[in-house]
Amino acid sequence: MNTDAYRIDVHNHIIPVEYLRELETIGIKGSLGKMFPEWSVEQALAVMDANGIQTVITSMSSPGIFFGDASFAKRLARLSNEVSAKIISDYPLRFGAFAILPLPDVASSMEELSYALDVLHLDGLVVLSNTKGIYIGDDLYDELYADLDKRNAVVYVHSTEPEAGNPLGKEIPTFLMEVTFETARVIFNLLYKGVLERYPNIRWIFAHAGGALPCLTWRISLGQFVIPDAGKAVPKGVPYYLKKLYYDTGLSANPYVFRTLRELVEPEQILLGTDYPFAPDILSAETIKGLHAYDGFSEDDLKKIEFKNALDLFPRLRK
Length: 319
Prior knowledge:
By secondary structure, the protein is α/β, with parallel strands linked by helices. Helices cover 45% and strands 15% of the residues. The protein contains 14 helices and twelve strands. The protein starts with 6 loop residues before the first strand and ends in a 6-residue tail after the last helix.
């Protein structure tokens, strides 16, 4: 173990063998245009130690757990969350985890949320951008938002395949570009469905620096003038809500992204994320290198991004 490690990585994925075995039974061997990478606790710890990362908050990534069979999703959510809890039990200050729910089954998701947060004591919730075309922000999930709001829960949003697939064709891997628009769609939906206004206590984190969202901020804001009831949904104006969200550095630690993101938010809203292992281990090092190479962050800013902001969201790690 690297005893000098202090960083906290909030965008780090778990791909346990138990999950892979279940997906193999329905013929799924990859996601977003590529095969699943290898993953193990030991490999993850080695990458963490090499990059000064004390703790990772893991999550299940695309393709998630729902493939049309609600009972399969319910069983796989429980399996995945219990695997995460076991890893935390074994390495309490090295790993945290976001629970996954069997959406779009709201009743089962409410049950699993209670189990994951109240019994397993996981650190928050991960949701994919859409489940069979139902996007986060949809009114179908109002009961879930209300519960999360009461809990002041941390909710991590990761993109997945659009229901119709990549509009540029199946030969184009979705992870290259389309995932960035998926994230922007979710934020747009949360804004204009009024979720961010009605449930202000949910702490939302968005992967990949918000995807395409930061550079679309002004254009998205025009919805205030053309979308029915936008005045009720975003009464404080779109920028107000966007500035309260959190954005991670996964596959985004470069000046092109940081310049745009910093026009939108202060360093207090940015979190370290590496996207390991879907982004190979060399990119964990490149993420940290890119973060420190950017000329717009002070030393204090870097401390906030690398661990202080995460400690505010996950106070148990202060130990």
